[in-house]
Amino acid sequence: MEEEVDSVTFKDLGIIEELCLACKQLGWKAPTAIQKEAIPIALKGKDIIGLAETGSGKTGAFGLPVLQALIERPQRLFALVLTPTRELAFQIKEQFDALGKAIGVACVVIVGGMDMNQQAMDLGKRPHIIVATPGRLVDHLEKTKGFTLKALKYLVMDEADRILNMDFEVEVDKILKVIPRDRCTMLFSATMTSKVNKLQRAHLKDPVKVEVSSKYQTVSKLKQHMIFIPCKHKHIYLVYILNEIGNQSVIIFCGTQQSTLKTALMLRNLGFTAIPLYGKMTQNKRLGALNKFKMKERSILLATDVASRGLDIPCVDYVINFDVPMHSKDYIHRVGRTARAGRAGQAITFVSQYEVEVYQRIEQLLGVTLDVYPTVKEEALVLEERVEEASRFAKMEMARLEEKSGKKGKRKRGNDEDDTEESFGVRKRIGKKKFKKKGGRNTK
Question: What CATH number does domain 17-211 carry, 2.60.130.10, 3.40.50.300, 3.80.30.20, 3.20.20.450?
Fold first, then answer.
């Protein structure tokens, strides 16, 4: 949740006592700006288009009104929340579980990468709330006997712009055709795209537009910097900065899955507690990586843009854009992983000679020129030999993992432990020299 609005309480917005107590237990002291604007309208049963920057508390803005309406009119299969990513779906379920614990709300997650039969059994129990990705929900609507959403009262689309930009339009149309027209619909998004505008014109009834940020922006407590460096020195400067900032929580965004895994392997070889998160991992492994980072068992999370939207990890100190995002709006979502819930945070973007034009579009979108992050070139280049050695190790490990993956496809695996974890923890690392800088991160 983002910066709090002074003197206004959830009770002032019309939230009932049970839910106000749940908010207090979650540490929500006061409504955020989007909650202050959206909740009173949603409690009246009106359709909403909510536009707010990432980290602004959108989940509470739709979750509280849905739960309050459910308390007033108890019904199974009451609400459906559509999200673009699996991780965001599980996070939203956690919020519903926490807010609705005292009133016995049943909420299930329906996403890809999980067992269809188990999900069908969960749906057969007729939960109050379903949180789903569009593709897997359509699979169940078409294949799971007896499952229907004909009595649905609420539809919520969180990160609506990304749902539509991820080619889910066909699935969304199928879902809209089988749910009642007489329902309350809420679209929440950080940006208003032409696709979202088209959707609201076709499927919402006199929606109220709630907007708490009129331009693309980042939160005020976020310090943003850039570094212009040769592409071949990116890994060197990454290690240099990680050593400089010490043992703090960092998310590093890479442009591809291959880059994510290679960089994670390289950092672990140097002794950093890093773990990767990318799309081709099974859902259990993705959740495992995320939980290890949340529980601070790993201090560095390397991710593709699968982690740039919606994930609420409150204590992220730094976001590093190892690769400049190709879409300028994705920059907003990436850096929104830090400086959440009123905390401060820092974002550093690496810009190589091949990324200048893309980076300039980001500055144009923000309307600001980012300051240069202070570095000492001579100190960074001292690390070149060690980093190159670790990079060679990472390439060999990737080749080994690929070969193992090919063999494993011919037989059933006995456990769900991540191969990358095995390569990090079991195989002998190159070099035994401690890699430490005064005041920095001790990497054994």
Answer: 3.40.50.300
Q: Each residue of 289-320: pLDDT tens digit?
A: 888 888 888 999 998 887 555 566 767 889 99
| CATH of span 222-425 | 3.40.50.300
Q: Which helix (H) or strand (E) holds 187?
A: strand 184-189
Residues 6+ apart with CB under 8 A from 167: none
**What are the residue ranges of helices labelled H in 9-133?**
17-25, 33-43, 58-72, 86-100, 116-124
Using DSSP, state whether 215 is helix, strand or coil.
coil
Domains of the chain: which residue ranges? 17-211, 222-425
Residues 234/262, Cβ–Cβ less than 8 Å:
no
Instruction: Give pLDDT, residue 145.
Output: 92
Tokens of 235: 């890994």
CA nearest to 164, candidates 191, 195, 190: 195
CB 210 within 8 A of CB 37: yes
Mean pLDDT calculated for residue range 148-158:
95
Q: Which structure tokens are listed for 210?
A: 């709630």
Q: Map tokens 């897997």 to a residue.
A: 136
